[in-house]
Amino acid sequence: MILFVFTSTLALIKWFVLLKSDLPKVEMKEKSNEIPIKMKK
Question: Out of the domains of life, which is the source (predicted)?
Fold first, then answer.
């Protein structure tokens, strides 16, 4: 039962992200945040 709830929630999140199409923006933000951290080290 817990597994079913988890998978259905995951599917909902995936559908929501696809609907909003914010995934590329989030990935770009993460990459741009990673670059300065690597430069500092």
Answer: Bacteria
